Amino acid sequence: MNLKMVILIIILIFSWQNSFALGSNSTLDILTGIGITRYNENSEDHSPISKVSLTGLNLNGSLLFPLNQGQFWSPVLGGGMTLSALIGKENIGEYSSSSVFMSSLFLVANGGFKFGSTPSFSLYTLLNLGYSINDKHTSSINTTFNDYQVDTEIKNHYLYGINIIAMFEKSKDFNMGGGFIFNRHSMRYDSFILLGKEPTNIGFDTSFDEYSFNFLISFNF
To answer: Which domain of life is it from (predicted)?
Structure first.
């Protein structure tokens, strides 16, 4: 098992255990939602299959534990999962184009603060640390004369960033709202392009930015 994944699992377990240990007055906030995600192209990477900007959807869910709640704010710890699926296409010169599909399933640990002077409104400011436990990346390069399919293996895909969430109470223990996420991704991919009879390997370490806008609902226990 990858070392980064082991560290992330330890952080998640530590967060949940400490939430129960420290928070005799704690509640459990369950958040889930759907949103739009965009991966910006990496200008430092010259591979045509990684420079494409990707746009798609994400499904997410998380458990957050407010600790030692005060009147206006409390620290929170927790974690969850995010599934994303994105597509993109970019012209390469005058006669070629590149098409990409990418999906990922992340384990994400969160820590930060929950603010709320009234029960009707809550604001979360969180730090994210995540690792993808499953990636799928398919792409093709289309030229005037030939189409090249690209088989890609993603390795060591992790992220870190911020998550800002605003929730409004609709009824007792039920809330609706939205959130904005900015994450920085890093990963290694090895691509095998069939050029003629022999596959050509292209390997890169790459990084890129994620912007996500989510619609969320939450339940408080």
So the answer is: Bacteria
How far apart are alpha carbons 45 and 128 in whole angstroms?
Answer: 25
Taking the C-alpha atoms of residue 63 and residue 80, their distance in angstroms, rounded to an integer, is: 6
pLDDT tens per residue, range 89-124: 876 665 567 788 999 999 999 999 999 867 789 999
Closest CA to 185 of 128, 134, 139, 138: 128
Domains of the chain: 3-220 (2.40.160.20)
The number of CA neighbours under 13 Å toward the Cβ of 89 is 5
Q: 171-200 b/e with 16+ CB inside 10 Å = b?
A: eeeebebebebebebebebebebeeeeeee
Which of 79, 59, 72 minimizes the C-alpha distance to 18? 79
pLDDT digits (tens, 9 = 90+) for 12-29: 555 554 544 444 445 789
Q: What is the pLDDT of residues 29-59, one digit of tens each?
A: 999 999 999 998 765 655 555 567 899 999 9
